[in-house]
């Protein structure tokens, strides 16, 4: 436990503190020190891709590639899977927690992190496409950081079958996703108990039974996510639009709060500017997952005409997660009267805000949407796990099935009780994934940048 706690503090604890005006400090964790400069570096190297190629991201998304070929899933399906994992608890309770601790200004810093992170997402997704390989078990393709790390350290023709760093990434991912399974179960059972007074045991049994039917079938996960993700994202988005239109007169005041508190004199004088910046930054990094190496596990599975296309789709995924879904949660909260939400936090705060906007329907809606967000995350991480289980244990159904059963057990345990250690285990897992992924991103980035240049010179000119 001491070793585990030391690793957790190294990854997520503030290892540097920068003094700010007003007596506050800006605490920087190792992951923040890695991911923000990385996002800035790749934004410059891609010549500000999030701004310059945003119309192209939309065009690629609207292409008629909804159905995957016999060789694999489509680019859109890979985007749906990664969106299922990005959009989860963090987009609801996590955003509320960031605003509670850092004020409305935290939303601005979440936006900044998303703009930087989309360039990192492009690089890692394009590399996943460049280094993907055939999947003999599920059909189509597989890949991700474990596979491009393998190629970085073990050249073709070598007799070595495993790279130590690639194996450590795969193991970190499997540990992280087990932790997320437990958190998912707890989130769902808690929300249903709050909204419908259903005992956790009953909701958990139903949840695990439904999940088992889906994940233990060969290729049911992608088909189910194809249905769930667009519906849940659209419902949440349009409900928020309704709330925004209903409270349109408050919008100038809300945006004034966001921008003034992001740089505001009151925060500087009150010693809270560091909390504003870092709560927004940390929540943005955790929510959009850019740089952690998770989304490339889905990106590699896409059967798509050019590697850079999948990179653009995954870059758009960061926008969908943070600029759209996280902002929806922020608006629901910020458009509610401050005196009503003062002193509340987590699901209580969000459900109180929704009760103000939509009455009891709002409370029920949040419970259902949280169920969809969390359940789709569980399905998505088991898709991610496929390629990493195969890298560690080889191509066999026994190891694939055993990991799914382990995840289902963690889902069941989480539904009955919350264990902080398991939550922290997930945080350590994603932190280690990020460290190992970064080892490959910088030396291999020129290949992704070359793919981007080729796409702009050939594919984009062809489409003009």
Automatic annotation (TrEMBL):
It is found in: Cell membrane. The chain crosses the membrane at residues 20-44, 164-184, 196-215, 227-245, 315-336, 361-384, 405-422, 428-452. It holds the Pfam family Na_Ala_symp. InterPro entries: Na/Ala_symport. GO terms for molecular function: amino acid:sodium symporter activity. GO terms for cellular component: plasma membrane. Its main location: membrane. Keywords: Cell membrane, Membrane, Symport, Transmembrane, Transmembrane helix, Transport. It is a multi-pass membrane protein. Belongs to the alanine or glycine:cation symporter (AGCS) (TC 2.A.25) family. This is Alanine:cation symporter family protein. It comes from Candidatus Choladousia intestinavium.
């Amino acid at each position: 436990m001491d070793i585990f706690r030391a690793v957790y503090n190294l990854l997520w604890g503030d290892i540097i503190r920068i003094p700010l005006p007003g007596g506050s400090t800006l605490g920087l964790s190792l992951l923040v020190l890695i991911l923000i400069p990385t996002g800035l570096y790749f934004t410059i190297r891609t010549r500000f891709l999030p701004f310059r190629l945003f119309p192209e991201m939309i065009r690629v998304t609207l292409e008629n590639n909804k159905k995957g070929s016999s060789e694999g899933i489509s680019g859109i399906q890979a985007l749906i899977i990664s969106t299922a994992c990005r959009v989860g608890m963090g987009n609801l309770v996590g955003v509320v927690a960031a605003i509670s601790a850092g004020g409305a200004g935290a939303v601005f810093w979440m936006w900044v992190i998303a703009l930087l992170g989309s360039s990192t997402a492009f690089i890692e997704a394009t590399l996943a496409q460049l280094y993907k390989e055939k999947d003999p078990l599920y059909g189509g393709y597989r890949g991700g950081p474990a596979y491009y790390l393998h190629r970085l350290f073990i050249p073709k023709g070598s007799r070595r079958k495993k790279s130590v760093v690639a194996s450590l990434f795969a193991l970190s991912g499997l540990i992280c996703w087990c932790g997320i399974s437990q958190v998912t179960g707890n989130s769902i059972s808690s929300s249903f108990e709050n909204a419908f007074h259903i005992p956790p045991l009953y909701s958990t049994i139903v949840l695990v039974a439904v999940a088992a039917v889906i994940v233990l079938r060969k290729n049911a996960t992608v088909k189910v996510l194809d249905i769930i993700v667009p519906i849940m994202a659209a419902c949440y988005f349009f409900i928020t639009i309704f709330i925004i239109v209903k409270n349109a007169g408050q919008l100038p005041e809300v945006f004034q709060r966001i921008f003034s508190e992001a740089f505001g004199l009151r925060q500087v004088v009150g010693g809270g500017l560091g909390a504003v910046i870092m709560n927004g930054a940390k929540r943005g990094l955790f929510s959009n997952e850019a740089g952690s190496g998770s989304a490339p596990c889905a990106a590699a599975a896409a059967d798509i005409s050019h590697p850079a296309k999948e990179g653009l789709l995954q870059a758009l995924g960061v926008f969908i997660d943070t600029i759209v879904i996280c902002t929806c949660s922020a608006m629901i909260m910020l458009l509610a009267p401050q005196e009503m939400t003062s002193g509340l936090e987590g699901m209580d705060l969000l459900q109180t805000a929704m009760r103000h906007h939509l009455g009891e329907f709002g409370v029920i809606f949040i419970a259902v949407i949280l169920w969809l967000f969390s359940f789709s995350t569980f399905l998505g991480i088991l898709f991610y796990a496929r390629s990493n289980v195969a890298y560690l244990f080889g191509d066999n159904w026994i190891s694939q099935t055993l990991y799914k059963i382990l995840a289902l057990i963690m889902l069941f345990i989480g539904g009955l009780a919350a264990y902080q250690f398991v939550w922290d285990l997930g945080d350590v897992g994603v932190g280690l994934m990020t460290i190992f992924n970064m080892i490959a991103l910088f030396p291999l980035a020129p290949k992704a940048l070359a793919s981007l240049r080729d796409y702009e010179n050939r594919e984009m000119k062809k489409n003009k």
